[in-house]
Amino acid sequence: MSEIKSAMLLMIFFVAILFPGILQFGIDSLNQNAFTKNTKEFTELVQEEAGLTSKSKEVKARLETKGYEVKLTDQQGTTVTGTVPYGSTINLAYRYTFKSVFKERVLKSTNTALVTKRDEKTSTGGGKPITPGEDSGNTGRSETKTIILTSDELKSANQTQTFTVDDLGKVKRISSDTGNAEILRINGNQVTVKMTGGATSRQIQTGGEYVEGESKYVTNQTSQVYKDKAGFEGVLNKYVASGYLMQGREKFVTAQYGRFYRDAEGYEGDLAAYLYSGELKPGGSKYVTGQTSSNYSDSQGYQGTLTSYLYSGSYTPAQVVTKSDSKVVNSWMLTTSGKHCSMYKSFSQYKNEILNESHSTISNFVGKQVESFYYTGWESPPKETEERCDVSFRLHYSYKEQSPAKDTRVYRYQGTVNKPSVDTRVYRYQGVVKQPDTDMREWRYQGTVRKTGMDTRTFDKYYQYNLELTYEVKE
Fold it and tell me: Fewest CB within 10 angstroms: 173, 201, 324, 432, which?
């Protein structure tokens, strides 16, 4: 079991540590070799093509698609976009970024190409056209030699000077320690060189003076920008001269009566409402019936005004019935004398008799009011005698019999009653309140200020070139 465990640990160690390291080493080595090869080949191509031609531009574009950054500059630092003169130097800066195991890696390199071959060019100093590498006419080949030619020290950076070189054969290249050097012509052992853009070799002061600037340290200033009468000035840094800063704090408060809180310790803030006590009992409505009063109110809080309705019983209205009757009375009248018989009674007498007679019978009715009495006519007797005549008339009368109304109705009340909402809620306020920072700091400014020096000097500047000439020694 221990052997298996050891093997597993060894495998984990290999996978986690050794394998990534080996893989990274392999990737880095491959990219490093490719980088060295590509930069060397492109530098040689630029040297052969005397700069950027269609061919070298095509190769440069292919390198850039692979992740290379290639920058070409001349001796003055100007970007090279085409070909350059004979004897010029091209600086090539390379940068290549590639993905390694754990992170991106960058390779950098700087190469120099000395242009020794270019198209034919006419010399600016006159004479016949020259071609780089042309010698004084001898075709012999001998050893290669490199010498240093020093120009005269002149006040101008642009110089043209002719040098005499013993045994001068084919010129291979020329370069300068400063600026640019260009061969204008070669005549036997003499070579004429144009030198431009060089640095100053020395300078001689011709007048004026130089007063060196000064600096000093100031503190406890009230302004960040410092300037004094002596000419010192500068921008100072802020610092705490005295006092302190006490950071604000927070706390939670509750059961407050107002939404905005502020206390003697400086805490303040807006609070949120919450239910402190009580409740909301919602209202309602219900329908009641069989009530004995139109104004309703109960122990549950329901109340309202009800409408009446017939609960029980009935109503029989009063009835008036007209009764009629008739009475036949006889009155005897002497026919011979035309006088009434002794038993004669007038209509009024009969009427009163009827009323009196009817008193006991009509009194059983409510009305007791005789409406009318009227004659219905005389009736002729069947025969007439002198002694008497049977004369009769029929007396009709009528009266109203009235029965009273009968009302056994019982009314009750019904309707919808409402219970209003009961709100006993009490609200309070709570929340986080803050105490602001207490800043008792007093700020001042300090730092180094400078007084600018004064330079009124004038100089005569001199320029001198050290040329490195490589050529084949003429036999």
Answer: 324
The reply to whether 126 falls in a domain is no
Rounded CA-CA distance 470/318 in Å is 160
**Which of 358, 337, 455 lies closest to 401, judged by CA?**
358
Residues in CB range of 309: below 8 A, 6 or more apart: 289, 411, 412, 413, 414
Using CA atoms, how far apart are residues 333 and 384, in angstroms rounded to an integer? Answer: 10
Per the DSSP assignment, residues forming a β-bridge with 304 are: 296
User: Same domain for 189 and 227?
Assistant: no
Secondary structure class of 340 (helix, strand, coil) = strand
CATH code (residue 339): 3.30.1660
Give the DSSP letter string of 149-165: EE---BS-S-EEEEEE-
Q: Token pair of 192, please?
A: 């004429």
User: Considering its fold, how many domains does the chain have in total?
Assistant: 6
Q: Which domain does 216 fall in, by range?
A: 210-244+442-453
How many angstroms separate the CA atoms of 2 and 102, rounded?
33
Are residues 412 and 299 both part of a single domain?
yes
Q: 348 or 378: which carries more pLDDT confidence?
A: 348
Is the whole-model pTM more than 0.85? Answer: no
Does residue 122 lie in a domain region?
no
Would you give the DSSP letter of residue 51?
A: B
More confident residue, 79 or 354: 79
Rounded mean pLDDT of 349-378? 47
How far apart are the C-alpha atoms of 255 and 431, rounded to whole Å?
10
Q: Please tell me the predicted confidence (pLDDT) of residue 393.
A: 46
* DSSP-assigned states of every residue in 278-318: --EE--EEEEEEEESSSEEE-TTS-EEE-EEEEEE--EE--
Residues 348 and 304 in one domain: no
Q: Tell me whether residue 186 is in a domain.
A: yes
Q: What is the mean pLDDT of the chain?
A: 78
Residues 266 and 162 placed together within one structural domain of the fold: no
Question: How does residue 75 score in pLDDT terms, banded at 50, 70 and 90?
Answer: confident
Tens digits of residue pLDDT in 408-449: 999 999 999 999 998 999 999 999 999 998 889 999 999 999
DSSP character for 17? I
Are 324 and 395 members of one domain?
yes
Q: Which residues contact 73 (CB under 8 A, 6 or more apart)?
A: 79, 80, 90, 91, 93
C-alpha span between 54 and 50 (Å, rounded): 12
